[in-house]
Amino acid sequence: MSFRVAIVGATGLVGRTMLDVLAERQFPIAELRLFASERSAGTIIEWKNLQLRVEPLTMDVARSGFDIALFSAGSAVSREYAPLFANYGTTVVDNSSAWRTDPNVPLVVPEVNAHRALEHHGIIANPNCSTIQLAVALAPIERLFNIVRVVVATYQSVSGAGARGLAQLDAELAGTEPTVRISSHPIAHNTVFHPIADDGWSEEERKMMRELRRIMDRPDMAVIATCVRLPIYRSHAEAVWVECQHQIELPALIELYRTAAGIEYVPENYPTPLTASGTNAVWIGRLRPDPSNPHALALWVVADNVRKGAATNAVQILEVLVQNGRLSPAHSFAELRS
Ligand SMILES: NC(=O)c1ccc[n+]([C@@H]2O[C@H](COP(=O)([O-])OP(=O)(O)OC[C@H]3O[C@@H](n4cnc5c(N)ncnc54)[C@H](OP(=O)(O)O)[C@@H]3O)[C@@H](O)[C@H]2O)c1
Q1: Three-class SS of residue 4?
Q2: Is the CATH number 3.30.360.10 carried by domain 130-305?
Q3: Using one digit for the tens of pLDDT, what is the confidence trace for 20-50?
Q4: Which atom of ligand 1 is closest in space to residue 76's alpha carbon?
């Protein structure tokens, strides 16, 4: 069986990486069409020796009878177009934050809650990139010791903000004035926060806190995030402290980390953004018991934000649906909303 696939946002960082991941994992594709805004319509993208022309996204495209649409064109595009595609029977996996809190849209990290993908009604949401790698790292801890509280500080690369993030850092490193920005502060040689709201939290921090609870099905879990952007091109790192209900037995956790799907455990030395970049794994190192609390531990988690944090996770969701024969939803998105 092979599928008719649309990629919306195909010229972006995530869209282009989706093309790589689909090819690498040999996802069965009968027809592939690429969409972006009018700006890049006509651009030719090479994929598996094919020359594919990027088309402008229009309402009519939704009626084309795609089996699958992978969206990575920002929240506004997803909010407008994803339900249209879903209503015409296309299964949408969306990388934006548009649908992540909708109770009719599963929020899925396959290593953690693959079963939720099977409950979809036409749209499945990919979580925020920082949250995906944290959820993968925490799932074995939750399974063994039952998590009470998580405190995380991120060290995020500029590619997490897409092409604009790369452009600001490139310009600043070249000593020129950036034409686009993701922060009013310089990023080169600096650390910056995501925009901070009046209540003292950034939206990135709030996303991590609420999405983690939803993915892990633990609405009661205490989560505190501090999200920081660094002048790194690719991959996010996270310093994590976890407090659990049960006493920590590190050997049992190390055993799980050594065998868990999607995890690369680094017992000596430590993973860095350069270790993780270009890989699909979540890299874990610096596992340490908290000397002040036998129920707590600290760890360091790194992953490629564009791969595991977006494109790879989306393709893994498709693989779960195909393996379980659930590309078509049980009830359509339109039925739920009528
Ligand atoms: N970068 C990450 O690490 C990451 C991780 C997780 C989730 N995400 C999410 O994924 C989405 C894309 O991120 P990105 O990093 O790939 O951004 P990007 O590099 O800036 O790419 C954005 C893409 O969206 C397209 N687009 C913009 N407006 C459009 C419109 N009106 N109609 C159709 N296409 C339009 C752009 O096409 P043009 O070439 O025509 O402008 C481009 O293909 C965002 O929602 C982001 O939050 C990103």
Answers
A1: strand
A2: yes
A3: 999 999 999 999 999 999 999 999 999 999 9
A4: 31
